[in-house]
């Protein structure tokens, strides 16, 4: 009896400590959410401090509304046209990002694999990527008008260069020995790209995609601030013209949330496609 009871106790203890068992304690399940909960500490502290500072009068409310007032404004906007503005901005970002990424991947592969293409294209691209986003706006308005095309093109320009730069760097930083091994095994050019070059370049490509997505949101605001009748950039402009800082801050918060969600989606895809990597993830201090 004592032997059976000891075996049962060991099984229960191992089941409690094994994080892969379905019946693991709630304490261990919470460890999955600890990094996300830690990420909420700083925003929560900022909100509490701002609420206190505004309420005691250190900051005038007409310049910096209290977070509670901004939350009420967000609630009012959500009952009105906020979703229309979000939908318009989201559609523009997705279209511009898709076009910019598609073109960037084509040119990155071309320049990364060909020195001759680099000699012809890289000087021009180096000059174009140094042009500020707002400098494109009047030219695109003259060429394409104030409809959706000019906005999507501007966003595509913003997404293009980070993906292109990181794509070229990712290809050029591939270990030469990997390419030589592919040649030794008689890989064709297509198989070499599919089996060696693409997997080795994926980490750099995902870095470019995430940078391109953040710039797509920035270029969206540049486009909508100047020529738009709907969208989050238009909401920012409307709040400025009506002297409503709560609307301006509410639009900024929505932009931050959408940017974080889109970046989190790309980060999840990166983690899934690059699960084979055994990389250093930092240390717990």
Give the helix proportion (percent range).
over 70%
Number of helices: 13
CATH homologous superfamily caption of the domain at 81-273? MetI-like
Distance between the termini: 46 Å
Task: Find the CATH topology of the domain at 81-273.
Answer: MetI-like fold
Radius of gyration: 25 Å
Q: Can you write the helix and strand succession as a string?
A: HHHHHHHHHHHHH
Tell me the number of strands.
0
What is the average per-residue confidence, as pLDDT, rounded to a whole number?
84
Strand residue percentage? under 5%
Global shape: globular
Low-confidence segments: 11-21
Structural class: mainly alpha
CATH architecture verdict of the domain at 81-273: Orthogonal Bundle
Largest sheet: none
Assign the CATH class of the domain at 81-273. Mainly Alpha
Describe this structure in words.
With 285 residues, the protein is mainly alpha-helical. It has a domain at 81-273: MetI-like (MetI-like fold, Orthogonal Bundle), CATH 1.10.3720.10. It contains 13 helices and no strands. The protein has helices at residues 2-17, 26-30, 34-39, 41-55, 67-78, 82-113, 115-128, 133-144, 148-172, 176-184, 189-226, 232-241, 245-273. Helix 6 (82-113) runs parallel beside helix 9, helix 6 runs antiparallel to helix 11 and helix 8 packs across helix 9 (148-172).
Fold blueprint:
Elements: H1 2-17, H2 26-30, H3 34-39, H4 41-55, H5 67-78, H6 82-113, H7 115-128, H8 133-144, H9 148-172, H10 176-184, H11 189-226, H12 232-241, H13 245-273
Helix pairs in contact: 5-13, 6-7, 6-9, 6-11, 6-12, 8-9, 9-11, 11-12, 11-13, 12-13
